[in-house]
């Protein structure tokens, strides 16, 4: 205690002279803080005190008398927080996928524009007709191959007797 009594004048002088260069900036902030604090204790605190007292009693009861309810409430809070985090992650992934799709569309539009510019409109239309014909031919060929495979599998199905091991009867060899 003697140290505090001996050094009190120096500490008070240090405290009173430390803020002098900045007092023009600090004093309005200090005044606003003190005014807001007085407003809170004068008007808001009497209104909020019953809520504070009730929640304080409920929390103390829940923590001391009902620990299982407390653990369930904590589990529910953790579940809600984890679901919120997962939702944020989902939104982030969807955003980046949509950005990649948009970028691919813009790149495709740029490539088509450069193709038209380089080849000319008539040559581009001829190339486009050739590509459409190629795709239509591939589609027809795919239909033919698909019909041939379907008819082959139908013939095989008709050839297999119902009770044989290759069929789907009781004695089927899976």
What does this structure look like?
- 87% of the residues lie in helices and 0% in strands.
- The chain is an all-alpha fold.
- Helix 3 crosses helix 4.
Largest sheet: none
Range of helix content: over 70%
**Uncertain segments:** none
Provide a count of the helices: 4
Q: What's the number of extended β-strand segments?
A: 0
Overall pLDDT metric:
82
Q: Based on CA inertia axes, which overall geometry fits?
A: elongated
Rg from alpha-carbon coordinates: 40 Å
Q: Report the order of strands and helices.
A: HHHH
How would you sum up this structure in a few lines?
The protein is mostly helical and 174 residues long.
List strands and helices in order, with pairings.
Blueprint: H1 2-18, H2 23-64, H3 67-119, H4 121-159
Helix pairs in contact: 3-4
Jot down its keywords.
174 residues; mainly alpha; 4 helices; elongated
